[in-house]
Amino acid sequence: MTRSQIDWALWRTFLAVADCGSLSAAARHLGLSQPTVGRHIEQLETSIRRRLFLRSQQGYLPTEEAAALMTEAKDMAFVAESLERRASASTNDASGIVRLAASHVVGTEILPWLFGPFMEAHPGLEVELALGNSNADLFRHEADVAVRMVRPTQDNLLARRIGTAFAGLYARTEYLDRHGRPKMLADLSGHRLIGPDRDAASIGFLEGLDPALSRRSLRLRCDSEAAQLTALRAGLGIGICQRGIAARDASLEAVLPQSFRFPMECWLVTHDDLRHVRRIRLLFDHLASTLPEWL
Amino acid sequence: MTRSQIDWALWRTFLAVADCGSLSAAARHLGLSQPTVGRHIEQLETSIRRRLFLRSQQGYLPTEEAAALMTEAKDMAFVAESLERRASASTNDASGIVRLAASHVVGTEILPWLFGPFMEAHPGLEVELALGNSNADLFRHEADVAVRMVRPTQDNLLARRIGTAFAGLYARTEYLDRHGRPKMLADLSGHRLIGPDRDAASIGFLEGLDPALSRRSLRLRCDSEAAQLTALRAGLGIGICQRGIAARDASLEAVLPQSFRFPMECWLVTHDDLRHVRRIRLLFDHLASTLPEWL
DNA sequence: TATCCATTAAACAATATTGAATGACCCGCT
DNA sequence: AGCGGGTCATTCAATATTGTTTAATGGATA
Asked: Contact B9/A6, CB-based, under 8 Å?
């Protein structure tokens, strides 16, 4: 069943020391004393017969071996946190914490607008937003519900198709007034284009749309879509934006809307076994009903 | 960083009690005494202000709330185990435990044959086989390396395409002697077909190949592919089998090999950050070089 | 160079955790 | 009905863990 011999608590202080960089800092963070934290590390090191930190008067420096364990230790922390969160609220109460994962853009541009009436209706509920682009978050227990733009493949996930978001090219009206409005795709080459930097997925996606849209053809490159959006709004050039978001911004104007438009399926995802947890169900259903009109 | 307040060790005994069904059994299993296990549960329950077990003289029965936490608690155990395993062996030693995930069929029919020379060459290495059909195992830290028949979608995974395995219809020669050899697809309907039971993915897949292959057309249904294979070998009927496996079994004979043959990409997958861990790399490379000829 | 602020390490006392032992209970079996 | 095997709860002493305090060390700063 459980074959592990090492006290799980030791991993927790291991993580804290590695993150904080010193016994003392970790101790403050964990609410323990510096000697105990030191003893925990000692204990862990003798258990695994391996040195995890280089000691110095300036703090504890993780060895390579310790660094290799960090991702897993973090996972452990995620699970613990999630476990605690789920345990602290009843299954069928409309109270507790719900953690929602989404991309930066969706999380900043759309979601906040949807929470007003929801939080009004359920005063006991707390919502946490975990923004990022990884789809791993549901698996790593970083969130209870996720808004995703790709169809989830994993089983043991409950997914509902919310609708289709369309993305297109947009630019600030002032920019277009000054630099002209492209009439055809070829006109784009003369423009300041905004797009991804080194994110392989996005670049590949862009080139798939039109081979002319290589990475080098972009004048402003940034992997943060939120920053790209702000750049658009600042009038720096032409870039990709979701139609729904652009539509709600009077300063933005569509560019070549008929020749450049691609759909993105939008999915709402949660863990299978959380289906019947009241607070999660509430958020899930609320998003399912309100999100579509924002796409 | 770590917002959890609850001692991680408590979750460990929580899991043990829920799994074992009683304080005493859990205590034996954990190497603790029955009173401490009881105190742990008490402590956990007061921490989360929720009752996790129904007490009785016959043992501790998990409440619904506790049941809802089980998957996560198990995940925690997986991570802890994996952490311990990875920590106990040096990054650049050819020693320690490597855990390999694969389907039941691959794990029973192919992999054992590949380990001989490998374990000979690396006496310090221990190999664990985690057989199952879920692709979640890498994520849930159940394994270090996985053999998968679908292209892995997650990022932060290192995947190498091993080759293409072909699957086709096969039956035992005796069966075909007695019941005749189908000459065309339509002939199949008169035969005893062996296939999946309720596994939605497999059923959908089968129907996609040929609409005639509905679930009802199957005479022996079982979700275990290994059992299907044994049924084939027992001469119970016609079923799907990987070409490589069937080729090594003289009693099996291909059925309609030209009209029914579908490819499955075979992938070797590991975590990104484990690329440089010696023992994992060794297994990965060994499989990459020996597996293709067995497909 | 002297001082201050951070760190780790060591020693000892306070505290919390644990285990052993016990009694009470329930179930199934003979 | 009585017995054996399993369970849980309680008590108290043994033990292990923790915190406090101290001293020593290194780096930054004036």
From this structure: no
Q: Which two tokens stand for residue A221?
A: 């490159």
DSSP state of A118: H
Yes or no, beta carbons of A72 and B84 under 8 Å apart? no
Closest nucleotide to A22 by C1' from CA: C7
Mean pLDDT is lowest, of A68-77, A191-200, B129-138, for B129-138
B256: left (phi over 0), alpha (psi -120 to 50) or beta: left
Model pLDDT for residues B236-253, shown as the tens digit of each residue: 889 889 999 999 899 999
Which domains occur in chain B, in start order? Answer: 8-73 (1.10.10.10), 88-158+265-294 (3.40.190.10), 165-264 (3.40.190.10)
pLDDT at A156: 72
Q: Residue B156: closest CA among chain A residues belongs to which residue? A: A136
Q: What percent of chain B has pLDDT over 90?
A: 39
Q: pTM value?
A: 0.77
What's the pLDDT score for residue B284? Answer: 94
Nearest to B245 by CA among B156, B165, B126: B165
DSSP A72: H
Residue A136 has pLDDT above 60, yes or no: no
Residues 6+ apart with CB under 8 A from B285: none
Tell me if A88 and B11 make a contact (CB, 8 A cut-off): no
Average confidence score pLDDT of chain A: 86
In the structure encoding, which two tokens stand for residue B83, read together? 């952490």
Residue B165 structure tokens: 């395995």
Pairing of strands A193-195, A238-242: parallel
Provide, as residue numbers in chain B, all residues whose Cβ is less than 8 Å from the Cβ of A81: 2-4
Query: How does DSSP assign chain B, residue by residue?
Result: -----S-HHHHHHHHHHHHHSSHHHHHHHHTS-HHHHHHHHHHHHHHHTS--EEEETTEEEE-HHHHHHHHHHHHHHHHHHHHHHHHHS-TTSS-EEEEEEE-HHIIIIIHHHHHHHHHHH-TTEEEEEEE-S-SGGGTTTS-SEEEESS----SSEEEEEEEEEEEEEEEEHHHHHHH----SGGGGGGS-EEE-SS-HHHHHHHHHH-TT--GGG-SEE-S-HHHHHHHHHTT--EEEEEHHHHHT-TTEEEESTTTSEEEEEEEEEEEGGGTT-HHHHHHHHHHHHHSGGG-
User: Encoding tokens for residue A31?
Assistant: 């609410």
What does the pLDDT average to over B113-126? 86
Angstrom distance, B23 CA to D12 C1': 21
